[in-house]
Design brief:
eight-stranded parallel beta sheet, 15 helices, 12 strands, alpha/beta, two-stranded antiparallel sheet
Length: about 400
Amino acid sequence: MTDPAASRRRFLRYVAASPLLAGAPAAAQTAAPSRLPDPMIWAPRGLEAVIDDPSKALNVFDFEPAMRRAVPPAHFGYMATGVDDEATLRANRSAFAEFQLRPRRMVDVGRVDMKVELFGATYASPVALAPTGSNRAFHDEGEIAVAKAARRGDHLQMLSTVATSSVEDVNAARGRAVWFQLYPTDDWKVGSAIAKRAERAGCGVIVLTVDVLARQNWETYQRMWRTDPRSCGECHGVDLRAFVRRKPMFDGIDVGGLRSTGALTLTWDSVKRLRDAVSAKIVLKGILTGEDARLAVEHGVDGIIVSNHGGRGEDAGRSTIETLPEVVAAVGGRVPVLVDSGFRRGADIVKALALGARAVCVGRPYLWGLGAFGQPGVEAVLSILRRETLATMQQMGAPSVRDLVPAMVTRG
């Protein structure tokens, strides 16, 4: 029989080690948190359990406390935060429990083909690297380390507009062109200049992000910033123009009139305007309804990424795994659908692939690896996800990604 007192002690140790309580008064550390941090309860929480080598990781969650120990509080908070009450951030994890797998037996899975094809390009794995900004805040090699890790496992990589490395350097490190994620900004001249530069660098896909509109209320970020003993204001002041001038993709562009990297004036006409500016494929990132998915196809979009920005945009409380079937049904196979936000396990990835996603993008997990150990950490995270996805496909009786079908998933 479980000892209630021992269980309570284990829970309180877990709560006390939460990154969100770093620097909190002792009294606050004994109270139950308003939300559980992203790692599940069984992940290591005490510093004595934090891995010191990527080879020691049992799952991707093992890397988050290692990153927490390695990077400054404000930088960790920027990565970890959701918006407002962080209901969407929590939903992105908890909703996976609502979907159960229905494995098939007596299928030869001695050899499993995990390759996926997107716009004529083939990748060795359905695990893609979502665009994440400011990677050098987590490790000196930043996006270059990520690109080299993506190259090692032949993963699709997407590069953020606010990356701390240029698209030219990242493409060289990756060994093939990445997809370029575009924040359109509120100045069309700036957004179009960045898109054209990415296309000149060889990027055949522009990922237009459409879900960054209002100024986000990132409370976890702000709280952790307050615990940072460094003078963060020198680099992270409120002047947006100073911020983007530190990002290589804005080099040589007049940002004097810039007020936001997002755009409150985005409409479907904006897609046509971008189409007229570049010949690259256009993928919309941030679609969360069947209605918008149908409109996207009608307006000539080449692909969709179902994304809630990892819970960093609006606190709607709905996960992307819940949204995915609605979008896939609306698209009807006319364009590829990808998905991101909250994916941490091979089983998560297989559920999305079975529900119709062509590939699954991860963001925070590879940042955990990057912040903790640099390129070897990213490689280890991707290796774990590949291994778990392979094992789950074998257990599901799916010798290829194409064999993962909706009938293999049920919702409880």
